[in-house]
Amino acid sequence: MTVEFLYFVRITQINEREIHQSFEAMCMRWGALDDNGEDRIRLILRDPLNTMTSESATPESVKQLLISEEFGDRLSGLNQLRQLDPAVAFGLIRSALTDTNVRVRYAAVSQVSTLGQQDPALALELLRDRLLNDPELDVKAAAADSLAALKLQEAFPDLEQVYRNTEEWLLQFSIVAALGEMGHPDGFALLEEALTSDTELVKTAAIAALGELGDMRAVPLLIPFATNDDWQVRARTAQSLGQLNSDDARPTLEALAQDSVEQVAQAAQRGLTA
Q: What does pTM read for this prediction?
């Protein structure tokens, strides 16, 4: 995915179930694309009460916040990690990955998507553990996203296993969306399977991921979606076919460039000029 959807919640006034329900409602309302044909799917939970800090953080001050009995302090500590040297921050974040509070674990796992660059092998170990063993769906989904952001292709078998063993659409969606960014060639078969999902968001994510993956075998799989009744599916199909830049896709892109929905037509026109 190319654009992140920032979803702000006041974490002191909303529980985990409400967060999940709000996210699901947002996805169902907006689908895969906004009015400009851009991605609005990636979820980042941010607390507007803790996005700014009045004092400069130090390793010791952040460490004290992270071991506080108050989960709000621990969340604040995670936010302040961004002020520290990444190597130091990565060392401090490990305890938060197994915190007793799901919000803290979610925030920590999400930050590993960048901090993990300091030690990819360790990041792989830590994220695999959360993907396979965390009891909460949102944390597992964040782990899948972070593994993809770090392009840790060694995790592909784990992502495939979790995808096949869950019926939770949000987790399936996160894994499918991750496969395109991760770029593992073996992801093609799983994405082909996801195109037949009963969940529209999973199916749309697979269309997007196939474009990112860049495997030309995707072209004949994507072309039938060019006539889908949902304009967002057609727009995503146009974007992915444009990314693949195949001669076989050109007639379909030319047809989509005449689509009655402006966002679809524009996506196809961009693909034709890529």
A: 0.79
22-30 long-range Cβ contacts below 8 angstroms, 24+ apart: 23/170, 24/170, 27/201, 28/201
**Residue appearing with tokens 């991750």:** 178
- pLDDT attached to residue 274: 77
Considering only CA atoms, give the Rg of the chain: 20
Give tens-digit pLDDT for 111-152.
Answer: 999 999 999 999 999 999 999 999 999 999 999 999 999 999
CA 67 to chain centre: 28
Query: Do residues 205 and 237 lie in contact, with contact meaning Cβ atoms separated by under 8 Å?
Result: no
pLDDT of residue 228: 97
79 Cβ neighbours under 8 A, 6+ residues apart = 47, 50, 51, 53, 107
CA distance 106 to 237: 31
| DSSP 8-state secondary structure symbol assigned to residue 166 | -
Q: What is the amino acid identity at position 153?
A: Q
Of the candidates 132, 201, 136, 193, which has an alpha carbon nearest to the alpha carbon of residue 169? Answer: 201
pLDDT in tens, 1-22: 333 333 333 333 333 443 444 4
Q: Are 271 and 253 in contact (CB under 8 A)?
A: yes
Rounded distance between C-alpha atoms, residue 46 and residue 194, angstroms: 30
pLDDT-derived band at 56, boundaries 50, 70, 90: confident
Q: Kindly report the CA angle at 104 between 8 and 72, in degrees rounded to 5?
A: 75
Cross-strand pairs, 7: 45
H or E segment to which residue 5 belongs: strand 4-8
- Helix (H) or strand (E) segment spanning residue 6: strand 4-8
